[in-house]
Every structure is written in C-alpha cells, then in structure tokens.
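Course assignment 3, question 2. Fill in each field.
Student: A.L.
Task: Predict the tertiary structure for the chain below.
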Amino acid sequence: MTDWLVRRFIPHADQVREPAVREKYGLLSGVVGIVLNLLLAAGKLFAGLAASSISITADALNNLTDAGSSVVTLVGFRLAGQKADEGHPFGHGRMEYLAGLLVSLIILLVGVELGKSSISSILRPEAVDFSWVSVAILAASICVKLWLSFFNRRLSRRIGSAAMAATAADSLSDVAATSAVLAGALIGRLSGVHIDGWMGIVVAVFILRAGWGAAKDTINPLLGQNPDPELVKELRAAVLAHPQVVGVHDLIIHDYGPGRSLMSLHAEVRADADILAAHDAIDAIEREIKARFGIETTIHMDPIVTDDAHINQLRGRVARLVRTIHPDISIHDFRMTAGPRHTNLIFDMAVPHQCTLTDDAIAAAAARAVKELDPTFYTVVQIDRIYS
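Answer field:
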C-alpha cells in the first residue's frame, strides 16, 4: 500500500534530495495522517462518551492531537520546500526539524494532560459502561495505527526525515496506549474492578515516552550533531580515490536540513605537485561530491613534503608520541624549520572531544614528548577539536 501511494502521488519519488519531492512526501504523510486520525478520534469519542470512560475519551483526544500533528508536519514540509532567498541563502530545510520538534511538544503536552485526568479518575473513580462496540472500535484503531506507524516509518527511511520518524514513533506508542485501554475495558468487564484511571496513566506514560524520544531526534540536528560515520567514511574514500590527494583532515559537515548540507575539508597534496593540476583535481572532487552525495563542498589545499625521508620518519615518530597522550589523537600539516640553535616542528593535532584534557595541557604534553626526541626541538602546535 505504501509503495502504491508513493507511486500514485509522488512523481520522481526516488529524487529524495530535491526539496519539491520531499515536500510531496510530507504532503502525503500529512493528508493520510489527518484523515485516519480524525476518523479514529470520532469513533473513540463516541465510544468513550457512551461508556463514560476517561481512558477511551483520552485516547480519542490523543488521536485528535495526532491529526493536528499531521497538519504541523504538512505545513513544516511545505515551508521547508521553499527556495533559498536573500535572507536564507541555504534554504529553509530546517523547518522540517522544527515541525518534528513541534509535533513532539504536542505529544508531550497531551501526555501531561492525560496523566492529570487519569489521576483525577483514580481519586474519584466512576463506573464504566462496557460495550462491545467500544471494543471493536479500539481493536480497529490498533490495526490502523500499526499500519500508520509502518507507513510513516517507511517514508522516513526513504527520505531520511526526523519529522516522519517522530510521527511513526507516536503512532507506535498509540498502539501500546490503545492496547492498554482495551485491556482495561476487558479486565473491568471480567473482574468488575474499575481500573480505567490506571489504564489512563499507562497511556500517558507511553505518550510521554514517545514524545521525549521524538524531541531528542529533532533537537539533535538543530543543535548540530555528529554526521553519520558511514557517510564520513565514504566521503574520505571518495576524496582519497584521487591520486593527487595524499591525506584528508578537518572534515566538517554543516546540516541546513535534509538534502541541504555544506562540507569543508582540507586535502593534503604533494608540495612539488603541479599547482594547476592539483587545483583542477580539487575542483573535480568538489563536483563529484555534489553529484554523488548532494553536498556542497569547499576544499582547502594543504601542500606537504612527501619526498624527504628525514621529515617522513620524524612525522611518524611524532604521530606515535602524541597517541600516548590519547590513542585517537592524530597530526597533520607537519613541517620542520631548522635554525642554528633549535628546530621548530610545526603541526596541527586533531583531538577528539572525548579527550578531557585542556588544549594547553595537550600542547604541553606534546612539547615534553618531542623534547625527549631531541632537546633542540621546539613545537608550534595548533589544537583542532574534531567530531569526525
């Protein structure tokens, strides 16, 4: 069904990096969510009022807010699909993340309000009228929500959307919540024990848990998170596949929304290389990354000496020494300038954020280690904190 809907309503569905295509995915997800959730809300509201059940009525309101969340998702994708303008030169792609965050906040609000209503029901319990019609509506709701979760999960994986993933997680939590309500109704029917309020608490917990998970998934890209390690690995391999490049460092990816990423990196080239040929190769790499990964890239060339055996040997020894400070520290841009009284070893140290030492402590430790190689060695060190 999902594939049929995608083929029917989304032309060029495979071009998921295109803002216009992503907007159509958001429209499809939003419309399907609005229609189904409104139908479920109407059915559960009827059943809840007929049975005087706080848990069923609360579940109906939950579906109503889900319909509102689908509207938010739809509007968010619509805004995210706007083209870049003078005020927003990198486009509006982060609106998709903001839509997902708003959806998660709505989910959390529903969970809090439902928890308050359920506690009130526990303190002042009222008899619940059992109805097989209510049972049938709840069972149908579980089936619909399972499909809706599957539907949004598949769409989110197709286009890499945090907003759709949040909607899918919400639908799955609704399955658990409605199952708890259904179980409460059946238990009350068979045992005569009024647990409607307690089932409402269970529903609230599921909703809050889903809302919190969805919020984290959307806040992280807004704050700036590590890129996918597999993507970084592929990008490095793509750059190093060109023979003119002998090393890569300082790779940084800026996420301006799905399909809107900028990247900068330093590519090491041989110091004795033809500068025009090396520059042409760098331009070709930038175009290749844009075509293969959809990432706008700026590459800075770093010339390094590769044919001096003494410098190469010294670079290797220093690289091993700095790893005694932290096993994941590496060096790049290694240069040596010799003078009459001392020799400067100039290099950058790429330090992972997991290393808790201060930059000054790292530089001092590197200076002491290099001094042990030769007392006339002085270090000129630049510390780069890295995330990839």
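Instructor remarks: The chain has two domains: 2-223, 229-386. The CA atoms of residues 261 and 295 lie 5 Å apart.
Grade: pending
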